[in-house]
């Protein structure tokens, strides 16, 4: 029986089809896929700016990584051990800096608390008496709205009937809580309240200067409360 002839045409077609699939497919994908620059040009300006920032950040991270590897390579220990030691030192330095910031914040808070404990100590006795009178006008109490009232007295709460100075001496946190809870948005401007109070009393303009200084201190303190979400400041006082 004669040997069957080789079908070269079939093998040629198979090779051609395989070449088209193996070479033409990737070539087609490479041709239709846009490059990174083409994609970048299609972005809007905001996305282009963000893409450049991310690219720079990645490049900086890579450069830092390479620099660290160069430093680790100079050590006698293996790179992974040198990297672990460097990371430990970096964590300890971060913790130390955070503790220093926390202690500094506590010191500032304590300083503010001490400065707010007696804001009227530098004022004269006349300014303290007048401050209690316009403070009662600001708080809007029905029993303390008279302009001739000499001292504000609480007409609510557990210290009802006591003066503002007495409550501040007994429980300064309670006074702080009242300021944070009772003072509304329309009563933020203490200087306007002082102006209105002295207009009602028809007194000299020079008498309200100590009150203006006290108003600045109270305004700074209340702004701190509003930034904290009306949270009372421990140990504070009016």
TrEMBL record:
Sorted UniProt keywords: Chaperone, Membrane, Mitochondrion, Mitochondrion inner membrane, Transmembrane, Transmembrane helix
Ranges for region Disordered: 112-136
Segments passing through the bilayer: 12-32
Membrane topology field: Single-pass membrane protein
Localization of this protein: Mitochondrion inner membrane
Matches recorded under Pfam families: CBP4, ExoX-like_C
GO cellular component, one term: mitochondrial inner membrane
All residue ranges annotated as the Exodeoxyribonuclease X-like C-terminal domain in the record: 154-182
Predominant subcellular localization, coarse grouping: mitochondrion
Role, per record: Essential for the assembly of ubiquinol-cytochrome c reductase. It has a direct effect on the correct occurrence of the Rieske protein, core 4, core 5 and apocytochrome b.
Family: Belongs to the CBP4 family.
Protein name: Cytochrome b mRNA-processing protein 4
Organism: Lachnellula subtilissima
């Amino acid at each position: 029986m004669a040997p069957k002839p080789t079908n070269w045409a079939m093998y040629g077609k198979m090779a051609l089809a395989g070449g088209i699939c193996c070479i033409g497919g990737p070539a087609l994908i490479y041709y239709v896929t846009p490059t990174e620059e083409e994609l970048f040009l299609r972005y809007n300006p905001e996305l282009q700016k963000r893409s450049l920032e991310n690219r720079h950040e990645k490049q900086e991270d890579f450069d830092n990584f390479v620099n660290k590897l160069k430093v680790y390579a100079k050590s006698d220990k293996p790179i992974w051990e040198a990297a672990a030691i460097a990371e430990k030192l970096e964590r300890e330095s971060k913790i130390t800096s955070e503790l220093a910031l926390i202690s500094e914040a506590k010191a500032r808070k304590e300083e503010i608390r001490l400065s707010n404990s007696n804001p009227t100590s530098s004022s004269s006795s006349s300014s303290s008496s007048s401050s209690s009178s316009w403070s009662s006008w600001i708080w809007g109490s029905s029993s303390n709205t008279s302009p001739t009232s000499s001292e504000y007295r609480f007409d609510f709460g557990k210290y009802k009937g006591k003066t503002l100075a007495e409550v501040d001496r007994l429980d300064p946190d309670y006074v702080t809580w009242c300021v944070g809870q009772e003072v509304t948005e329309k009563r933020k401007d203490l200087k306007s309240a002082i102006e209105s109070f002295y207009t009602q009393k028809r007194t000299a303009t020079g008498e309200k200067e100590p009150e203006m200084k006290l108003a600045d201190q109270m305004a700074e303190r209340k702004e701190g409360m509003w930034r904290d979400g009306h949270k009372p400041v421990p140990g504070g006082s009016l």
